[in-house]
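subagent[fold] <- orchestrator: predict structure for attached chain, return tokens only, no commentary.
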Amino acid sequence: MLRNLLALRQIAQRTISTASRRQLENKVPEKQKLFQEDNGIPVHLKGGIADALLYRATMMLTVGGTAYAIYQLAMASFPKKQD
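subagent[fold] -> orchestrator:
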């Protein structure tokens, strides 16, 4: 038990070294060029295939949800007749 506490104390006292961390490449200038390029593509689709798929999925869900809401409103406005 004491050995575990001493090991924990030693780990807690270690300083965090930034030299061992992996350096990430700065991709901001590349992304700025991509999004500022005047190529006729809307900015929300300039990210590539993933943006196009996300856009289409969002549109399908929006149109489907709107159609379902209108259907439910129509069904609620014409109640079934009691026999």
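orchestrator: received. Logging for downstream: Helices lie at 2-13, 28-36, 49-77. The chain has a mean pLDDT of 86.
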